[in-house]
Amino acid sequence: QVQLVESGGGLVQAGGSLRLSCAASGRSFRQYGMGWFRQAPGKEREFVAAVSWSGRSTNYAPSVKDRFTMSRENVQNTVYLQMNSLKPEDTAVYYCAANLNGLGTDVRTDYEYWGQGTQVTVSS
User: Fold this and answer.
1) What is the pLDDT of residues 30-66, one digit of tens each?
2) CA dihedral (38, 41, 45, 48) positive or negative
3) Cα torsion for 20, 96, 77, 71, to the nearest 10°?
């Protein structure tokens, strides 16, 4: 069983930055592929970013590429999402997810474990 706990969300003005963290339980964290997804009110949950088990491969949605950076610290069992140049359309609940295949995949159904989410609100 893997437990994921997100933190770091909040309210920020457009153009600002936030860093989200996701702490994972489990001794096999370094084997997991990790991803961030988000869900705005009335919309489907969508892919944001992912990183492979090694950290050498990352994957980003076109809407966040060059603004968001995902990283992982396997010693600390934690992944991060640095979000810069935030826009009002980035407003959503952000979810951390883990897949046991170790892949940095953008496919939601590849992920077996999910956190509870953290709210990010960007004001204009």
Assistant:
1) 899 999 999 999 999 999 999 999 999 999 999 999 9
2) negative
3) -60
